[in-house]
Amino acid sequence: MTPSSGSGLEVRDVSVSYGGIRALRDISLRVEEGEIVALLGSNGAGKTTTLRAISGLVPYSGSIVFDGKELRKSSPDHIVRLGLGHAPEGRRVFSRMTVLENLMLGAYTVRSKQEIDDRLAFVVQTFPRLEERLSQSAGTLSGGEQQMLAIGRALMSSPRLLMLDEPSLGLAPIIVQTIFSVIKSINERGTTILLVEQNAQQALRIANRGYVLETGSLRFEGTGAALLENPAVAEAYLGVAIENIK
Question: Global pTM?
Answer without folding.
Answer: 0.88
